[in-house]
Design a protein that fits this description.
disordered C terminus; Heat Shock Protein 90; Globin-like; two-stranded antiparallel ribbon; about 375 residues; 9 strands; five-stranded mixed sheet; alpha+beta
Length: about 375
């Protein structure tokens, strides 16, 4: 009836069909498309056939599954599709069973040497696929961890910076009894630090993300709190803060995330506004959405930087300062997105920028979120 590799060459489609019946709906989801399911496995089967042919001719294999990128690429693809490591291992075992069962059904007398080649090829395929799966998974976990730490560190820097700035102002005034505004900024910043520490402890206890905590918020109080927290920073940079509330409404949302989003946008505006300039915060209602605009006097963004404004670790060019990690606007967008809202920027060349936050008045708040 011929050798095993002869049978497999003629019946490779049957092998793949039998393998598919083995795995679909059991090892892998039944809803997975055939193209995603099959992936590089037909090429892997071809490599097994080549290895069997070389062994039958008494030659050392010129190449094998362990020496090509087939199984390695397959492991990365399975990770992206959400496969478990167990599923990756078992589908290679299913391929081995499909090869042997098709060979036997075709009447091939499978020798020990042929069975050993199939076994070795399966082990090599599993090793390559699992190694790449684990490598990419670990790299992604490391990336997510670093991003989370960077975001958290940036959130610590903002309120701490306000506290230091407020203290500096008090010292510069020769310990004269502080103004109510500076005192409020200091208390607000220290309170924010305490809140962030609590959040860090919560994040260490749960891996599925932070549950959004919806509550009814009076928008005037939120915006006045943001203005108070940023006042010392604005004063130190000789920037005038103006707050205009067209409609004072109640909003359902997570106070921590909304405050974080607004604070980051306002702080960013102050940071890049030229001395003697103005940062204006405006709020209004359009239909079922709250619209908040933060207009600065930065002089506008250079060509190509509008698209990068909300990317993590991208710092917008400015002649006054190059400090910071470029995370503030990314954090703000993350917080607004968590509420089903949007954050965009309008560039005013030669004048400044307007950052526009749109948040549903009754935001979708169900389910966990990894934001914040």
């Amino acid at each position: 009836m011929g050798t095993l590799h002869d049978v497999l060459e003629k019946r490779s489609d049957e092998v793949m069909g039998r393998w598919q019946r083995f795995v679909q709906g059991t090892i892998v989801p039944e809803s997975l498309t055939v193209i995603e399911l099959v992936d590089h496995l037909p090429v892997f089967l071809g490599e097994v056939i080549d290895a069997l042919r070389d062994a039958d001719a008494g030659r050392s294999p010129e190449s094998g599954p362990g020496e090509t990128k087939t199984a390695t690429t397959h492991g990365g693809q399975r990770l992206r599709l959400g496969f478990s490591l167990d599923a990756v291992v078992r589908e290679y075992g299913a391929m081995r069973d499909a090869i042997i069962s098709v060979g036997r059904d075709a009447g091939a007398q499978i020798t020990f040497a042929e069975a050993q080649v199939v076994f070795d090829a399966t082990i090599e395929g599993i090793a390559s696929a699992v190694s790449e799966y684990a490598r990419q998974r670990d790299a992604e976990l490391h990336r997510q961890h670093n991003e989370h730490v960077a975001f958290l560190a940036h959130e610590f820097r903002n309120p701490l910076g306000s506290a230091v700035m407020a203290t500096t102002i008090l010292e510069d005034r020769g310990f004269i009894p502080p103004t109510q505004r500076a005192t409020s900024a200091l208390k607000s910043s220290l309170s924010k630090l305490e809140e962030l520490i609590d959040h860090a402890l919560d994040s260490a206890r749960i891996s599925a993300g932070v549950e959004l905590r919806p509550e009814v918020l009076r928008i005037s109080r939120v915006l006045e709190g943001v203005e108070t927290a940023a006042a010392a920073n604005a004063e130190a940079r000789d920037v005038t803060l103006i707050l205009k509330i067209e409609h004072d409404i109640e909003l359902v949302g997570d106070a921590r995330l909304i405050h974080s989003a607004l604070s980051n946008v306002v702080r960013n505006a102050i940071k890049f506004t030229h001395g003697g300039g103005v940062v204006e915060i405006r709020s209004r209602v359009e239909g079922e959405r709250l619209v908040i605009e933060v207009e600065d006097s930065c002089g506008g963004l250079p060509p190509g930087q509008v698209e990068q404004a909300f990317a993590p670790f991208v710092r917008l060019a400015n002649s006054q300062t190059q400090k910071g990690f470029g995370l503030g606007l990314a954090i703000a967008k993350q917080a607004v997105d968590a509420h089903g809202g949007s954050l965009r920027v309008q560039n005013l060349p030669g004048k400044g920028c307007i950052f526009v936050l749109e948040i549903p008045i009754v935001a979708p708040m169900s389910g966990p979120s990894n934001h914040g």
